[in-house]
Amino acid sequence: xxxxxxxxxxxxxxxxxxxxxxxxxxxxxxxxxxxxxxxxxxxxxxxxxxxxxxxxxxxxxxxxxxxxxxxxxxxxxxxxxxxxxxxxxxxxxxxxxxxxxxxxxxxxxxxxxxxxxxxxxxxxxxxxxxxxxxxxxxxxxxxxxxxxxxxxxxxxxxxxxxxxxxxxxxxxxxxxxxxxxxxxxx
Amino acid sequence: xxxxxxxxxxxxxxxxxxxxxxxxxxxxxxxxxxxxxxxxxxxxxxxxxxxxxxxxxxxxxxxxxxxxxxxxxxxxxxxxxxxxxxxxxxxxxxxxxxxxxxxxxxxxxxxxxxxxxxxxxxxxxxxxxxxxxxxxxxxxxxxxxxxxxxxxxxxxxxxxxxxxxxxxxxxxxxxxxxxxxxxxxxxxx
Lengths: 186, 189
Known about the structure:
The complex is a heterodimer of chains A (186) and B (189). Chain A is built from eight helices and no strands. Chain A has 186 residues and is mostly helical. In chain A, helix 1 crosses helix 2, helix 1 runs parallel beside helix 3 and helix 2 crosses helix 3. Chain A starts with a helix and ends with a helix. Chain B is 72% helix and 0% strand. At the A-B interface, helix 3 and helix 4 of A face helix 2, helix 3, helix 6, helix 7 and helix 9 of B.
């Protein structure tokens, strides 16, 4: 055992196991500085214990009792309320049913709106500035016939233009305008 | 009823008898307050913890096992609440970072006799414990002041024995260092 590991055990000498105590004793017997440290701590420990071993009493016993009893009564009341909520299963069941009904209504309203006619927010000379708040209607011109987007070539062209120049080329623009006109005409 | 045992009183209180519980509070509040006061170090905080301890006791009266002592059960509640309090308030209170700075207001007072020196030492040691971390302080007070065994503290605070010993080592070492500087300062006065 070296001094470093001995120092870790000196302050907990009385909490060590028999074997650990023996090993520390052997080291302390041959090391004056560790022995001095152990002896010093053995002197100090009772001093500290005595200094802290004070009988504390509440400043006002009766007031503290009253305060504790008030808190207990408050806790009792709130505990009772918790029980009412837990045992009032009829109330909870109806609340749950109501919430499910409201959620279903909201979902149905959303689906109805989703399939209705498009809402155009703004008309502009720039194609991209037209806001169509209806996704199926927006896809309609691209999915005639096969039911899938059949303008993939133009679509790729538009995407390539955007990637390369951050704007669309005249051909793409014309193509899109043509498609929109075609859609508006029926 | 004053002659009734704790077990009898608990049975009555568990059945909803508030007067019986009041008797239990009157009987044990000094003990609960004392433990909390020694761990947290402040009167008002110790009163809060005593209050919380009895509220917790009231809520869990039905879980009380008659084979264990009531004081052991209360010890566990109050020690845990005090430890939780130390953790939540750690750093908010002024710490004893400079050992003898905190004692400056008393520095000009010459200790007239042994009693005064003892009082000064007591106050200094109490302030020194404030320099410990919550874990170190709780373990230190429960072991060195309350005299509980490492096993008891381990069960009470749900910590391993190794952790208890390592916190005990650090706490005691720190206190020893602070006491050395306290004595040194006293010599130079």
